[in-house]
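User: Before I run my own analysis I want an independent prediction to cross-check against. Here's the chain; please return only the structure tokens and, at the end, one sentence I can use as a sanity check.
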Amino acid sequence: MNSLAATTTKMMASTTDLIARLRKVGLLAIARVLDDFLARATKGHWSPVQILEEIVRLEEIDRTCRSLQRRLQRARIGRFKPMADFDWNWPKKIERDLIERALTLEFIREGRNLALIGTNGLGKTMIARNIAHQAVMAGFSVLCTTAAELIEDLRSCGPETLRRRLARYARPHLLAIDEVGYLAYDSHAADLLYKVVDRRYERPGAKDPTSRSVLITTNLAFGAWNTVFPNATSIATLLDKLTHHADVTLIEGESYRVHESRKEAAARRKKKP
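Assistant: Structure tokens:
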């Protein structure tokens, strides 16, 4: 028994050391399941080639999953309802074919932009976040932000920090900017937004030939952007570059949130004795 116990202790120590070494060289998947892996290999009388193939398979799956998790975190998509819950019959006007085509990510592969225009509560953000999520799942890099967040982020930067931050916004395959037009800004804010669009205009990444796409949601027609960016000389050029290679679609109708609020209020009234 003493000999058996000593052998078992030695094997456990050896396995623990091997797990640490596997982690050190980045083989995290096999390190997590080493005991089970060794048991299966022994029971199945695996050849050296079979062992190596299984190690590679486990590591490929694990690295794909971790890469997806990192890209989802970096995308900052936020919570959203799936498109299966979208009521296509609610808006008075909506180009369903264009939106469903956008969900195939065709516009990203072609290096085009996408603009969703419509008043509040018609599902622009829901559509945009579904597109962003689809893009991440398809292997594209994505960054989601609001116009307010983007402008305040850039406004707070010094010259050198601004250069690096602009590079961050220029890097993803898809940059989704939500809620353009909800707040009024000065001409400096318009210049900052222009710099972001300009750095993405017809420019593939240094290590990736794919062009960079911008997805915009706004409650204002482009002709009215001067009302939220008054006295901004860069707006005309910004819109020219944003819409040059772009699909632009208008969604019209009453706010679905208002519609749901009315339904809930009516249901509460019915419950009253």
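Sanity check: DSSP finds twelve helices and five strands in the chain.
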